[in-house]
């Protein structure tokens, strides 16, 4: 199973992870089930925030309502590892209660942040492929870029207007002056 994430959503997660150092950042990820189209940072209310996380329940409820209103599917949870790899810790494995959700871990251990997606289920822990995209928010594409048909119509209109302009300019040309011989 391959999950996609636009860079702008990955940026929200990495920015939150960096802002919460030395603590772990956490939040929700949502989308259409195949693409993570939204990330909502939440407060970490764990007693030891530096090595574990716990989502603030009221904020989580508010975030879930927001996702519902925006017609987004709750796909999972993200959290950060400020000083370790993007691999589920033993605490992470114990904490997971909803096995249907994805677990996205962002590691700040190295200079370049690393994001790894996991599915933690009854059958074990499985890494999932995460593909980064520059443009994968369909709603954004619809709103800004013209469709194939619209593009074809624009090109056709441009060609027709050039032909018309040429036709008009030829008809408006004054008649060629008569060539007269010198006296
Ligand atoms: Zn963790």
What does this 3D model show about the protein?
This protein has two domains: 134 residues, Cytidine Deaminase, domain 2, CATH 3.40.140; 32 residues. The protein is α/β, with parallel strands linked by helices. Bound molecules: zinc ion. Zinc ion (ZN) binds next to strand 4.
Question: Within the CATH hierarchy, at the fold level, what is the topology of the largest domain?
Answer: Cytidine Deaminase, domain 2
Q: What's the order of the H and E elements?
A: EHEEHEHEEEHH
- Please tell me how large the radius of gyration is: 28 Å
Name of the CATH first level of the largest domain: Alpha Beta
Bound molecules: zinc ion
Spatial sequence of strands, sheet with the most strands: 1-7-6-5-4-2-3
Helical/strand content category:
alpha/beta
Task: Tell me the domain tally.
Answer: 2
Short description:
By secondary structure, the chain is an alpha/beta fold. 36% of the residues lie in helices and 28% in strands. A seven-stranded mixed sheet has the order 1-7-6-5-4-2-3, sandwiched between helices.
Map the helices and strands:
Layout: E1 2-6, H1 7-20, E2 26-31, E3 36-42, H2 57-69, E4 73-81, H3 90-95, E5 102-107, E6 114-121, E7 124-133, H4 138-144, H5 148-172
Parallel strand pairs: 1-7, 4-5
Antiparallel strand pairs: 2-3, 2-4, 5-6, 6-7
The chain binds zinc ion.
Zinc ion binds next to strand 4.
């Amino acid at each position: 199973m391959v999950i996609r994430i636009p860079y702008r959503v990955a940026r929200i997660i990495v920015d939150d992870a960096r802002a919460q150092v030395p603590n772990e950042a956490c939040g929700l990820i949502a989308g259409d089930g195949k693409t993570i189209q939204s990330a909502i940072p939440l407060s970490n209310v764990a007693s030891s925030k530096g090595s574990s996380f716990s989502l603030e329940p009221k904020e989580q409820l508010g975030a879930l309502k927001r996702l519902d209103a925006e017609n987004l599917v709750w796909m999972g949870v993200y959290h950060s590892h400020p000083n370790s790899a993007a691999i589920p810790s033993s605490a992470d494995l114990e904490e997971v209660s909803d096995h249907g959700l994805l677990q996205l871990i962002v590691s700040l251990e190295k200079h370049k942040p690393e994001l790894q997606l996991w599915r933690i289920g009854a059958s074990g822990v499985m890494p999932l492929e995460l593909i980064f995209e520059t443009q994968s928010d369909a709603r954004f594409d619809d709103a800004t870029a013209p469709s194939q048909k619209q593009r074809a119509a624009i090109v056709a209109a441009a060609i027709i207007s050039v032909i018309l302009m040429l036709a008009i300019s030829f008809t408006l040309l004054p008649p060629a002056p008569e060539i007269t011989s010198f006296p």
